[in-house]
Amino acid sequence: MSKIMMWLFVLLAWVAGPPLPDRAADERWDVKEGYVVAKEDGRVLAVRDKVPDRHTPLNRILEEVMPNAIWLTVSPADYHAVEIRDHIGISIPNGAINQSYPAQAAADVKKLNSP
């Protein structure tokens, strides 16, 4: 009986496999590039990686990308120059980032060519 239990345990461990790596734990987001997922009141919400489905609700996006999201207060020109889903370059002139979630900062943004 103990051999059967041992083999059952080995089989379950093999089927389950190792846990999936958490990208956020592997490396920190440098907040120099991102993707726009929302715009409101002179701010753009940027996340680290492109969101595959444009119809995903914002609260679900924020749950999935945690902690890699930041609200950026931008100039009116920058606000109007970028659209949701754009790949953007981010410059935070004073380097100050409020570490709430999503994080917050004043920034300059520019639209980048998609990779």
Describe it for me?
- This protein has 115 residues and is α+β, with helices and mostly antiparallel strands.
- It has one domain: Nucleic acid-binding proteins (OB fold (Dihydrolipoamide Acetyltransferase, E2P)), CATH 2.40.50.140.
- Helix content is 29%, strand content 27%.
- The chain has 4 helices and 6 strands; from the N terminus they run ααββαβαβββ.
- The chain has helices at 2-16, 23-26, 58-65, 76-81; strands at residues 33-40, 43-47, 69-73, 87-91, 103-106, 108-111.
- Strands 5-3-2-1-4-6 form a 6-stranded mixed sheet.
- It is elongated.
Report the major sheet: 6 strands, mixed
Q: How many domains make up the coordinates? A: 1
CATH architecture annotation = Beta Barrel
Q: Could you name the CATH homologous superfamily? A: Nucleic acid-binding proteins
> Structural class given helices, strands, pairing?
alpha+beta
Q: Strands across the major sheet, in which order?
A: 5-3-2-1-4-6
Q: Write the H/E string, N to C.
A: HHEEHEHEEE
| Average of the residue pLDDT scores | 84
User: What is the fold-level CATH name, i.e. the topology?
Assistant: OB fold (Dihydrolipoamide Acetyltransferase, E2P)
Distance between the termini: 57 Å
Task: Summarize it.
The chain is of the alpha+beta class and 115 residues long.
Keywords for this entry:
alpha+beta; signal; six-stranded mixed sheet; OB fold (Dihydrolipoamide Acetyltransferase, E2P); DUF3221; 27% strand; 115 residues; 6 strands
